[in-house]
Each structure stands twice: as C-alpha cells, then as structure tokens.
Amino acid sequence: MELAILNINGKETGRKIILNDSIFGIEPNDHAIYLDAKQYLANQRQGTHKSKERGEVAGSTRKIKRQKGTGTARAGSLKNPLFRGGGRIFGPKPRYYGFKLNKKVKELARKSALSYKASTNSIIVLEDFNFEVPKTKEMIKIGNNLNIANKKSLYVFLEKNKNIYLSSRNVQGIDVVMASELNTYGIMKASVLVLSESAVDVLQAVFEN
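Now predict its structure.
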C-alpha cells in the first residue's frame, strides 16, 4: 500500500511511503483484537475494591435474642449480613485482573488493528515536525489542515516530544503516543491514525523482525 506523505499544512510533500502488506494488509483477526483489548483494559483496573464481611464489621458479638420462642428466625449477631449495618455476603476483595497473553497473539492483534485502519483509509502519514514552544492553537490548526478536527485521532511519533505533548493534551479527541507505546486498544479507539514518517519506519522494522 502506498501513501503520500503530507506536511503540517495538509499538503503533499511529493514523497510517498510504502506500507508493508504483511503489517498493514493482512486479514484481520477479530478474536486476537478482542483478547488484546481485553487484556489492556484489565491491566488498567486497580483491583483495590474491598467490602467488610461479618467477621470484619465492628459491633457486639452478644446474642441479640433467645434462640427459641420468639416466632422469628434465629439470630446470633448484629453483624449478620441480613441486618442493616451487618457484613456483606460474598463482597469484593482485592485482586489482580490481568492475565497472560502470548506475544504472537498480541502482535497479530496490532497488525489486525493496523490493517483495519489501512483498509478504511484511516491512516495519514505526516512528515516529522516539532514546535519550538508548546502551542495548543498549532495542534488544532494541524487537525483542521488534515480535515480530522472532529474525529478522534491518535498521533504516533518515534520518540517522546514534550512540546507536542503539551500542545495536544488540552485538545479533546487527540492522543499522542510513541511508537513503542502503540497498542491495539488505542488503534481501534481512534478514528484516524496519524503516523509520523520516522514512526512508520520503526513500526515496520519492529514487526518485520
């Protein structure tokens, strides 16, 4: 697949880049995408939720009424889960939600996500650029020039750029990541994938190896 390289003004630079079909042109595997996205979201969960069971609730352990003769159900403690203020039955406990996913499955998922974007013409290759100082207006201007101002866009750069990050963090619908941080969930969540020229070279070199 061949794409024209654009500049920040949205104009073609006269140069083109070839996207490797083994990365951007495979038959997408939906189940691999599902598993990788599921693992990503699971890893974001803190898992620190906790409720008190009857043995952890503060209160008297005195038997509140006699065992027989009251005409009601027997009860031995105010901390009974059936009473207001008592413990919770089978409440949540701290746990780790993450799970193992094979490296090849994750790689297949990212390739599948990139192929989906390529098949719908949702990939833009932008020549490398930088800001001398953080300017939110400049980042908004780039989105307008590329006709993606009203779309969720994911900008992928070769390395971390502080000025570009600061320029974009206050703009709704724009995310900025490094090529090494690119994940399946982020790709599928974005409507448009904006790849810097140098990031494309790195992505293709990593997946080919």
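The first helix runs from residue 21 to 24.
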